[in-house]
Amino acid sequence: MGAASAVGRAGAIIAPVAIGYLYGSVGFTNVFLTLVGALALGVVTIVAFGEKTAGRSLEQREGTTARPPPQPAACSSPAPDSSTPSRANSQTPPGWRSPTGGSQPPARGARRPPPTAYA
C-alpha cells in the first residue's frame, strides 16, 4: 500500500507539468487521448493482476490475519459522588464571566452589550 501511495503522489506532482508540456506540443485532443489511454492501461492491469474478492469477506482473504477489535481501557478514576453536582447538568460553563457581571450566560438570541472603550 505504501508503494501505491508513493506512485500516486509522484503522479500528482508530474502530471500537471506533463499535461502542460503535451498540450503545448500536441494539442488538446491528443492530451485527452493520452490520459484516456493511461487510465485504460490501469484498468487492464487491475483486471489482469488484481485479486478477485467478489463474495469473500475480509477474513477469507489469503494472507490476512483478522485482529480482534481493541478493548476499551479500564477506568482508573472512582465513580462520581452523587452528592456533588455534575458539570454536565449545569447551565454555566466553568470559568464563565458574563460581560454584564452576572454568572449566567446570555439567553439564546440575546444581544451582547457593546465593548467598553479602555482609556
The overall pLDDT, averaged over residues, is: 75
Query: Helix-strand pattern, N to C?
Result: HH
Helix content: 25-40%
Oligomer class: single chain
- Largest sheet features: none
Quote the beta fraction.
under 5%
Instruction: Based on Cα principal axes, name the global outline.
Output: flat
User: Which ranges are low-confidence, i.e. pLDDT below 50, for 5 or more consecutive residues?
Assistant: none
Q: How many DSSP-defined strands?
A: 0
Distance between the termini: 62 Å
| Secondary-structure class | mainly alpha
Number of contiguous helices:
2
In short:
The chain has helices spanning 2-26, 28-49. The protein has 119 residues and is mainly alpha-helical.
